[in-house]
Amino acid sequence: MSFDDYRYLRFERPRDGVLLVTIDRPERANAANGAMLDELVRLWPEVGDDPRTRAVVITGAGTTFCPGGDLDEVTEATGDIAAVPGELRGMHDLVGNLVALDKPVVSAINGFAAASGLAVALTADISIMAADATITDGHVLGGLVAGDHAALVWPLLCSMSKAKYYLLTGFSMDGVEAERIGLVTMALPPDEVVPRALEVAAHLAAGPQLAIRWTKRALNGWYRQAAPIFEHSTALELLSLFHPDAAEGVAAVRERRPPVFPSTQDPEEPSC
User: In which element (H, E) is residue 18 found?
Assistant: First the structure.
């Protein structure tokens, strides 16, 4: 595996068979631009082909995991029909390539994670989160459908009732709550997150590789069965980019004010 052409992902080999991947875009608090998302998409097939890697840990540089897409690029995509095919393919591949990878992945959620960053964190096979870190799938707060990974992953991890509560409201939660409802594997003090993730990855890297990989493949059959739900949610998310609520949601975030969604001002109920 060649790391030379990755700009926003940093690589280390701290233990035998373990690859540590660090999301690193400090000038934007690790927000994902198009180039970073492309790197996260192609990372997993390359890891699959790398004979030196038997387990992966992915984390964020500094005190943030990944807050999702860069707001500047989200603004540009709002209402741009020409961008939809590429965006749809990228959303599918970001999650699909991680699900298809047979090697185990441990996410070390060291800080804030949302949207596409949260998709990587929660689609990982084992998720270890800082107790005081915050995660949110705040799509609805921006006037968007909760696509990405949420409809695929959350109901399986934390139940349909909890998934609906957090995805329909956009409420955030800390690591303690995320562990309590089963959304993450465990919550630990911040300084223990990466060391514990590396410890788990080293255990996996030293284990029986065929048994571990085929067990993962069998369990991920639940995700593959739900592929139509995933595809539906991503299509609806991209479609919602064309609604005035999306433009208002992005503007409100940029202007640091509460949104006033046009759909709440119309006396007629929005058609579904």
Answer: strand 18-23
Q: What is the DSSP letter of 8?
A: S
Identify whether the C-beta of residue 139 lies closer than 8 Å to the C-beta of residue 166. no
Query: Is the pTM above the cut of 0.90?
Result: yes
Alpha helices, DSSP H, located in the chain: 34-48, 71-77, 84-100, 115-123, 150-158, 160-169, 175-180, 193-205, 209-219, 221-225, 227-240, 244-255, 262-265
For 189-228, the pLDDT digits (tens) are 999 999 999 999 999 999 999 999 999 999 999 999 999 9
Q: How far apart are the first and last CA of the chain?
A: 46
Residue 83, domain member (yes or no)? yes
Residue 210 falls inside a structural domain: yes
pLDDT tens per residue, range 103-162? 999 999 999 999 999 999 999 999 999 999 999 999 999 999 998 899 999 999 999 999
Residue 147, in any domain of the structure: yes
CATH of residue 100: 3.90.226.10
